[in-house]
């Protein structure tokens, strides 16, 4: 049986065989099917994924005519940011960074980002962000959004005014924890309205909500409510809503949006609520398990995302950065792994963008 | 007895405190020993952890089950003392997100699971100075768990391990590491003992290493 | 996410339309503006451009077309519209409204 080079979820290269790849694809898909109560991939689709993973070439790609849209998160921080964002650590102006992405890197859309890429820190500097948005919109041609993470964790002590549910729960103060999460959620929704409507008034094409749900289910509800407020105030805003994980963490456990408990929802369920809130494009996330192979992770990710795409009325732009969408968790991503995951998501999961 | 064992397990998985208390009472009346009752509840708690990881139960449910376990121990603990049964000394664990890092949701979930798993958890929160971990180990913690969510802060885990060595505490301390950028390879590289992809896996490994 | 060389560029090479190199910006606008899925967005843009769905990702065809239609190109071409000017031409081409162009029109309205 001929040897095939592939990757583990941490990016390390390993040697495997096609039959092992197929086994791992099936196991990963079965794991997703079990967790999400959805269908596992058919044997035809598994074979298609195996062909992609086992390709002998370093770089693989979709056939001409099947290209999709690439949207971005973290804005210019891929150039200017530090190792934490896998940033290159090159200081530069945000106008230059935006035009470089448009002209030198083929970005279909781009976004403006604050160095502290969250809603709460942007509030006091919103005028600064607005003036930069106006400046860049005068020069850029591609759709140019403003991006930020809702990051509701910043609303809890010591960074914010509300009690930290994780600390309260450890003291068995469950009801108090839930109450604080609900209050933080409402506060964040108001801040989202404040920041997003002002940036829209500066000429932004729209807003990108990145890693929705990083602080759990109350974070998701606060973001959805913020999106509703933005949609109401700016009916024509382009809204991209991306998640933080494949399953909404139930830190509150029973908080609802549109009459539905949000905890435990998977991408095919998350997207329906995102549509209800008013999002134009949805970004599902599937986290990579560093101890499993690329095949396992990709089989799992494609299963979740394909199901999401099947039920979605809006376009799906699957999140595919470090440690998500099947891609290894590695600061310097292996190019062979990235192109395989990219091709797989377009051709097998059927995404509208990445 | 088998029925009582199942009832205890089911009550734990249903996570409601009154239900757990009722099942414990029924088991006591049926003549089950405190140790047998605790073991059955422990199996239920392990299943609660699995269901939490699969997104079927959520943190308040896990906490409610833990509260039920705590309430059961309040009744069974004194009984075990009366009967002269040696109660297991809880293993003390210091947990914290390392200095310079403020992400703590995963670490807090792990602390909760360890607590539910029978460990005595000293959770120092986030942005924890390195020396604080050492102080807790000096104060009696047998295990040291560190979380970091950024590649810039995960290197502090290596520093703390070195500090344990310098203080001649490394051999007597079990070191656990976790957080999004952490991997088994990182754990091996810095000489930590346990890496868990999830809170459940970390708790399971912590239990295993302590029963060796 | 960061590491442009290892993430953004491989994705572009593997599956991206390439933004204003070809028609990725136009297809993206239809996805967001009208919630079109990829196939519909590509067909819509192709029809507006007067080319086939297959051709909208072809640099050779799209470079000439973008220059003719004055909707922005990737190279530094003096007198070629950029920014608001190019986007106003895109509005006319696709039959949509672009927020920054609306703001521009509001700002010059009282002349």
Summarize the structure.
The complex is a heterotrimer of chains A (354), B (212) and C (111). Chain B is an alpha/beta fold and 212 residues long. Chain B has helices at 2-13, 17-29, 34-53, 59-82, 105-116, 130-138, 155-166, 184-190, 199-211, and strands spanning 92-97, 120-123, 143-147, 174-178, 194-195.
Give the proportion of residues in helices of chain A. 40-55%
Large-scale geometry of chain A: globular
- Give the ordered list of helices and strands of chain B: HHHHEHEHEHEHEH
Strand content of chain B: 5-15%
Mean pLDDT of chain B: 89
Estimated share of beta-strand residues of chain A = 5-15%
Report the principal-axis shape of chain B.
elongated
Q: Label the structural class of chain A.
A: alpha/beta
Lateral strand order in the biggest sheet of chain A: 3-4-5-6-9
What can you see in these coordinates?
The complex is a heterotrimer of chains A (354), B (212) and C (111). By secondary structure, chain A is an alpha/beta fold. Helices cover 44% and strands 12% of the residues of chain A. Chain A has helices at 18-36, 43-54, 77-80, 94-104, 119-122, 126-137, 165-170, 174-201, 217-233, 267-277, 294-311, 335-347, and strands spanning 4-7, 13-16, 110-118, 144-149, 206-212, 238-243, 256-257, 260-261, 281-283. Chain B is built from 9 helices and 5 strands. Helix content of chain B is 58%, strand content 10%. With 212 residues, chain B is an alpha/beta fold. The relative contact order of chain B is 0.12. Chain C is built from 6 helices and no strands. Classes of the chains: A alpha/beta (354), B alpha/beta (212), C mainly alpha (111). Chains in contact: A-B, A-C.
């Amino acid at each position: 049986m001929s040897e095939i080079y592939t990757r583990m979820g941490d990016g390390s290269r390993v040697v495997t065989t096609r039959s092992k790849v197929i086994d791992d694809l099936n196991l990963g898909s079965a794991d997703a099917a079990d967790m999400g109560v959805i269908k596992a991939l058919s044997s035809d689709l598994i074979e298609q994924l195996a062909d992609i993973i086992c390709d002998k070439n370093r770089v693989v790609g979709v056939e001409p005519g099947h290209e999709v849209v690439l949207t971005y998160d973290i804005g210019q921080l891929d150039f200017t940011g530090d190792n934490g964002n896998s940033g290159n650590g090159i200081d530069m102006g945000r106008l230059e960074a935006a035009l470089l992405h448009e002209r030198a890197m083929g970005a279909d859309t781009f976004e403006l980002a604050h160095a502290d890429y969250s809603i709460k820190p942007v509030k006091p500097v919103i005028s600064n962000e607005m003036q930069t948005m106006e400046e860049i919109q005068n020069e850029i041609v591609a759709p140019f959004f403003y991006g930020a993470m809702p990051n509701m964790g910043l609303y809890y002590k010591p960074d914010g005014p509300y009690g930290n549910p994780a600390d309260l729960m450890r003291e068995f103060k469950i009801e108090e924890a839930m109450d604080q999460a609900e209050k933080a959620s409402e506060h964040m929704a108001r801040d989202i309205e404040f920041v997003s409507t002002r940036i829209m008034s500066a000429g932004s094409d729209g807003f990108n909500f990145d890693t929705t749900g990083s602080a759990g289910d109350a974070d998701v509800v606060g973001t959805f409510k913020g999106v509703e407020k933005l949609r109401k105030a700016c009916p024509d805003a382009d809204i991209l809503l991306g998640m933080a994980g494949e399953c909404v963490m139930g830190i509150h456990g029973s908080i609802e949006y549109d009459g539905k408990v949000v905890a435990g929802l998977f991408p095919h369920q998350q997207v329906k609520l995102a549509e209800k809130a008013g999002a134009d494009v949805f970004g599902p996330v599937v986290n990579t398990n560093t101890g499993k192979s690329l095949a396992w992770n990709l089989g799992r990710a494609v299963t979740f995302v394909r199901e999401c795409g099947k039920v979605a009325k809006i376009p799906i732009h699957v999140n595919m950065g470090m440690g998500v969408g099947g891609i290894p968790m590695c600061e310097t991503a292996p190019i062979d792994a990235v192109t395989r995951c990219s091709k797989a998501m377009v051709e097998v999961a059927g995404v509208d963008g990445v | 007895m088998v029925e009582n064992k199942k009832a205890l397990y089911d009550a734990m998985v249903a996570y409601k405190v009154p239900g757990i208390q009722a099942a414990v009472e029924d088991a006591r009346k049926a003549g089950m020993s405190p140790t047998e009752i605790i073991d059955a509840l422990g199996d239920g708690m392990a299943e609660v952890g699995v269901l939490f990881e699969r997104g079927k139960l959520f943190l308040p449910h896990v906490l409610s089950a833990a509260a039920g376990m705590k309430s059961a121990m309040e009744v069974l603990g004194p009984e075990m003392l009366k009967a002269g049964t040696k109660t297991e000394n809880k293993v003390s664990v210091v947990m914290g997100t390392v200095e310079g890092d403020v992400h703590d949701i995963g670490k807090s979930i792990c602390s909760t699971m360890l607590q539910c798993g029978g460990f005595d958890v000293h959770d120092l929160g986030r942005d924890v100075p390195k020396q604080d971990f050492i102080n807790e180990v000096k104060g009696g913690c047998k295990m040291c768990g560190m979380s970091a969510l950024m590649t810039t802060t995960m290197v502090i885990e290596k520093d703390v391990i070195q500090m344990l060595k310098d203080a001649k505490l490394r051999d007597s301390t079990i070191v656990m590491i976790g957080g999004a950028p952490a991997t088994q390879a990182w754990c091996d590289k810095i000489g930590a003992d346990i890496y868990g992809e999830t809170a459940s896996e970390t708790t399971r490994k912590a239990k295993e290493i302590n029963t060796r | 996410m960061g590491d442009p060389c290892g993430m953004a560029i491989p994705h572009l090479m593997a599956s991206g339309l390439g933004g204003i190199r070809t028609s990725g910006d136009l297809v993206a606008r239809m996805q967001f503006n009208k919630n079109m899925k990829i196939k519909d967005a590509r067909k819509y843009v192709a029809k507006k451009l007067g080319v086939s769905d297959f051709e909208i990702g072809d640099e050779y065809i799209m470079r000439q077309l973008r220059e003719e239609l004055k909707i922005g190109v990737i190279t530094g071409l003096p007198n070629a519209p950029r920014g608001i000017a190019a986007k106003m031409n895109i509005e006319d081409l696709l039959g949509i409204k672009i927020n920054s162009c609306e703001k521009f029109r509001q700002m010059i309205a009282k002349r």
